[in-house]
Amino acid sequence: MRSIGHFIGGKHVKGTSGRFADVFEPMTGEVQAQVALASKAETRAAIENAKAAQPDWAATNPQRRTRVLMKFLELVARDNDAMAELLAREHGKTIPDAKGDILRGVEVVEFALGIPHLMKGEYTEGAGPGIDLYSMRQPLGVVAGITPFNFPAMIPMWKFAPAIACGNAFILKPSERDPGVPMKLAELMLEAGLPPGILNVVNGDKESVDAILDDRDIAAVGFVGSSSIAQYIYERAAATGKRAQCFGGAKNHMIIMPDADMDQSVDALIGAGYGAAGERCMAVSVAVPVGKTTADRLMEKLIPRVESLKIGLSTDPTADYGPLVTKAALERVKDYVEIGIKEGAKLAVDGRGFKMQGYEKGFYMGGCLFDNVTKDMRIYKEEIFGPVLSVVRAKDFDEAVALPSDHEYGNGVAIFTRDGDAAREFAAKVNVGMVGINVPIPVPVAYYTFGGWKRSGFGDLNQYGPDSVRFYTKTKTVTSRWPSGVKEGADFSIPTS
Ligand code: NAD
Question: Does the pTM of the predicted model rise above 0.85?
Fold first, then answer.
């Protein structure tokens, strides 16, 4: 069986804590590897390594730094197929979806190639007599990223590529459920020419996370995961004065207006609701048809599509989606379906009984569809993170806008309509961070930024795009007077311009 340790100072090192976690292969249900869980001391060793390597990296000119990322892109392309298969075997998503996971990370690496331009400072000549001002952006030092299981390639790249391009050293603490691909990414960065110690991978659980949060040599923490942990990390990181940006869970609504193209809307709901078995932070988990006729038309088309979803092996390229990540995740989703039934929602499609022939121990679940879900139900209020779509019927546009706006999560939202007026008003009014208009998963391209509102995001800067440069650098402002011989005499009042 594979044994996965840590990657510190450019080397694979074995775990010494004596603690391990099982890594499953969701499509068979078998344990395929064991991953070491780092102790506080092992985490500290990685931080010390990063701290020692960082000054030279910061002193390397920005263009040389990004050349390493350029080479890394070539290596990711070279190893893409093998990495996608490893990802699918550890996570459970299908190989085409795993390739998408890698590619959305690659897009942020491509964005990071332009970071030398974004790191440029400002300059003002003659802000006062003989006085010039300039500002510069400098790296923070050692920064950390704590990432979730559901995008084991994309989210680590979202974090480490901009941070490293800005001149920081990075500690990555990936999910213990699918650690293979993050490890591979670190190996490729080394092969691309990154100096040892600039990207370290510490595998672990709460113990290593707490060690990162409490360590005064870590200047910033980027987290992605569930909201309760996001809030915990945000608060604990602040206690030692770190910068923190912590992205949490979601309940993404898709509004279907009476004039929407119903076939297009149903296609969008099927893909965005059930793709990756619903294990996406931008998955649509709530459909909101506006008006009874729209709702009835939607259900008529949606039910047969959910019933005919093709659930398959992660390695089956024709499957719509594969298994969930672990048995615990599967049981949790099934429990939510039971809760929904008890709460009085109508289970229009029940996929709980699905079994994959020959792979009965795999973590599979058929698509479930609830109708007549209401705002007070737990299946509406809480993130299920599985192949379960809830239909909440709204009587009019105002009620449809209020639903996602009043929800405690505010990650993504979509509206399907042919009415430009309604779409424009919706985008302006809705209290959610990322909006799609006839686009079901509105993940912004790499040169914008990604971030949810309310309990979907703690902190004031988004991930990737220009915000990532703001997050991973600090601004220094220099006020200088030349010629230095200008004499004005002592002045006891505050200098003004
Ligand atoms: P999770 O919160 O269980 O774990 C995320 C990370 O936190 C992992 O590295 C894990 O090891 C660590 N962790 C877990 N428990 C901890 C604890 N008690 N103390 C310290 N660290 C702890 O999340 P997950 O199940 O891996 O991922 C799914 C969640 O991530 C969903 O809620 C999903 O919506 C969210 N997500 C959000 C975004 C976003 O950008 N908003 C993107 C992807 C996923």
Answer: yes
